[in-house]
Amino acid sequence: MASVGPSMASTQPALPSGPAVFKTIPYAFILPEIVCGTWVWILVAATSVSLPLLQGWVMYVSLTSCLISLLLLLSYLMGFHRNSENWKVLDSLYHGATAILYMSAAVLQANATINSEFNSDSPLYYQLNSAASFFAFLTAFLYILHAFSIYYQ
Q1: At what angle do helices 85-117 and 123-151 cross, to 10 degrees?
Q2: What is the 3-state secondary structure (H, E, C) of the chain?
Q3: Burial of 64 from C-beta contacts in 10 A (0-12 / 13-18 / 19+)
Q4: Which range is the signal sequence, renumbered to this chain (predicted)?
Q5: What's the pLDDT tens digit per position in 52-84?
Q6: Domain segments of the chain: what residues?
């Protein structure tokens, strides 16, 4: 009968700190999440926000998740986690919840894109909304990948 003692705890992978964050999956997804989320925010801000309720939610989700992800990245780079297993749970819950919020924002942004297609103000706004929709879905996909990859790690 094999004993299940401290030797099992040592097989858990250590949480990365410093530059190793950029080389370790799923933590390497944080920087692309921030960059793509920033593009969503910039592209929506560059349009004439014709549907303030819909695109306001997109702006809120993209800006808030970008800032929280930046804080999470900085905390990993500084090593604030001290290799605690609670950080994995926090990371997984945050990225899972943010994936759901980002998917809702991406759908609303796609709706705003469809509505801007029929608006004769400027074809530039349709193109900006299309790009914002693309980056919103890409960012939601990155958050989903991060949440599931940390869960299955």
Answers
A1: 160
A2: CCCCCHHHHCCCCCCCCHHHHHHCCCHHHHHHHHHHHHHHHHHHHHCCCCCHHHHHHHHHHHHHHHHHHHHHHHHHHHCCCCCCHHHHHHHHHHHHHHHHHHHHHHHHHHHHHHHHHCCCCCHHHHHHHHHHHHHHHHHHHHHHHHHHHHHCC
A3: middle
A4: none
A5: 888 889 999 999 999 999 998 888 888 777 767
A6: 19-152
- Would you state the structure tokens that stand for residue 23, as one six-digit string? 């080389």
- Look-up: residue for tokens 């899972």? 96
133 is written with which tokens?
């929709």
Whose structure tokens read 């858990």?
Answer: 12
